[in-house]
Amino acid sequence: MKGFSKILRKTDTKKRLSVPIRFLKSLPPFKLGSHAVEFEATDEKGETWAFQCSTRKSGPYRKPVLTTGWVAFVKSKKLQIGDKLLMESLSVLLHLTSPMESGTMHDSHSGDSIDCLVV
């Protein structure tokens, strides 16, 4: 996955985060017959967050979304509608930027985990 960016909308901050289908390549494999997978991400403070990515059970488009754990992450980071989310590989980095604030990017570590950084 090369990455993607997204301006957070109401649904992204209140219920779930819709992600591009290519994001699935960055996650652990789904078990046979399953439409959800759990994974962990580490934020800029080293705190680990557990998320679940789920997809539609049927239909031509899987429409992946982050559900379990996402709203707690949003509340903890005080994310709002209009904040910018940037995910990029190798070990998927999450950069969150408020439209009203700017800051310095934090360094992340490489590895198999997903890193979450707030700027």
TrEMBL record:
It is found in: Nucleus. InterPro entries: B3_DNA-bd, DNA-bd_pseudobarrel_sf. Residues 2-100 form the TF-B3 domain. SMART domains: B3. Keywords: DNA-binding, Nucleus, Transcription, Transcription regulation. GO terms for molecular function: DNA binding. Its main location: nucleus. GO terms for cellular component: nucleus. This is TF-B3 domain-containing protein. Pfam families: B3 (PF02362). The keyword Transcription regulation applies.
